[in-house]
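Task: complex structure prediction.
Instruction: return structure tokens for all chains below.
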Amino acid sequence: MKKILIIIGSDSDFPVIKDSLSILKRFGIEADTIVCSAHRTPDQAAKSAREAKDKGYGVIIAAAGLAAHLPGVIAAYTTLPVIGVPIASGPLNGTDALYSIVQMPSGVPVAAVTIDGGTNAALLAVQILAVENSELSEKLYAYKSELRSSVERKNMVLKSRIADLDK
Ligand code: RP5
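Output:
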């Protein structure tokens, strides 16, 4: 199966990516994580993006904060799908990164997830790989069914809390 490459702009972005790693682990997908900055190490960013496909990666997750150009720069050098994760670092709490990532010019798409959305980034990566992998698809159905059960549980708890109001 294809692997996932996770690129973070700084080690300070790692807490968000821990959420991605636990999702990928749950689905049994191998991932490599590296620090590489579009601004501090631009040559390395281009190299990592260019080599990713030949190294067996199927999707790249790129997470960065502030003026977050990393996902866009990575997308410029590869045909692999790139998922950008805006990180809530700095005084603008990630809105700067969100706009930087989502406002890509026509021709170079990046799929942006929520600010600090490490979980959704990994799930989207799994869904992309699942297009060609029925075993992964089954696991995704099971995941969604767990989500459904958790909402059903919430409704039961809510119902009893509302009933308690009348006591
Ligand atoms: C961005 O600058 C990184 O992605 C990080 O979110 C932010 C701060 O980086 P550090 O100063 O913590 O290295 O490029």
